[in-house]
Automatic annotation (TrEMBL):
Coiled coil: none annotated. It comes from Geothermobacter hydrogeniphilus. Residues 1-254 form the EAL domain. This is Diguanylate cyclase (GGDEF) domain-containing protein.
Length: 254
């Protein structure tokens, strides 16, 4: 309850922030895309993980204002980078289940893009399989509407949900992000290693872009590159950065 009360005022007290973690394009060996990650820091400096407060925000309905705030912040930042003449990046933003199925979600996305001036193709929404499976028909319709608008859609934490191949074929999405629990096991865990290779091959067979997250070691990087993974994300390259740090990095790599 204490956390809930604090979350209510976190937005207005400016305690929420957004970090940006760059992705690396494996074929071109350059930065390609950024994921927006929400963070919350109390005035005393203590930080609270989104794994704790996002579920709370979902329960209390605070996810709607918080979700719109993150999306606005991320789209505005991305548009700002483009106006500074930096190479255009795709900005990925995480969406949680209640937010996605909220009746006003699609209109909210349109409104944010319009207000920030960001072209839809530079926004990617990250959704999880288990989320989409909660209401398959509604999800399919929403995904189709979003893609019609030009927004990209990526399935996050891929491999941890239902992973039904037939559903994957039926969901109109642009890419898959392999869950970091699989990447962690490369190369010593044969199951994780084989599954990662299989997901990459399967994703490509379906015409999808495949992203790996949680890349921390060189051997993982080499394996993913050899298997033809398209983009990677992880501490081996860049941790989540502040907007200023990320701006600096994009300037260096322009
Ligand atoms: O940044 P970190 O690794 O601590 O994120 C933990 C979890 O919180 C991840 O599952 C991530 O997808 C989720 N998350 C991070 N930022 C957001 C956000 O802006 N909205 C939602 N819904 N989830 C987020
Ligand atoms: O569920 P989602 O993919 O949105 O969550 C991404 C989370 O993973 C973020 O909280 C981010 O901080 C974290 N993350 C990013 N890179 C790495 C990494 O290399 N290793 C680990 N353990 N976590 C990472
Ligand atoms: Mn994500
Ligand atoms: Na993930």
């Amino acid at each position: 309850l204490v956390l809930e009360n604090r979350l209510h005022t976190a937005l207005e007290r400016n305690e929420l922030g957004v970090r940006y973690q760059p992705l690396l394009h494996l074929h071109r060996s350059r930065i390609s895309g950024v994921e927006a990650l929400i963070c919350w820091r109390y005035p005393d400096g203590e930080s609270i993980s989104p794994e704790r407060f996002i579920p709370l925000a979902e329960e209390t309905g605070l996810i709607e204002p918080i979700g719109e705030w993150v999306l606005t912040r991320a789209c505005r930042q991305n548009h700002h980078w483009q106006q500074q003449g930096l190479p255009p990046q795709r900005m990925a933003v995480n969406v949680s289940v209640r937010q996605f199925f909220h009746p006003g979600f699609f209109d909210m996305v349109c409104r944010v893009l319009e207000n920030t001036g960001l072209a839809p193709k530079w926004l990617a929404l990250e959704l999880t399989e288990s989320m989409l499976m909660q209401d398959v028909e509604q999800a399919r319709k929403l995904l189709a509407d979003l893609r019609q608008l030009g927004v990209k859609v990526v399935i996050d934490d891929f491999g941890t949900g239902y992973s039904s191949l037939s559903y994957l074929k039926r969901f109109p999405v642009d890419g898959l992000k392999i869950d970091q629990s699989f990447i962690e096991g490369i190369p010593r865990d044969h199951g994780d290693t084989a599954l990662t290779a299989a997901i990459i091959a399967m994703g490509h067979a379906l015409g999808l872009e495949v992203i790996a997250e949680g890349v921390e070691r060189l051997e993982q990087y080499r394996f993913l590159k050899e298997k033809g993974c398209d983009r990677i994300q992880g501490y081996l390259f860049h941790p989540p950065l502040t907007a200023e740090e990320c701006t600096g990095l994009l300037m260096e790599h322009r």
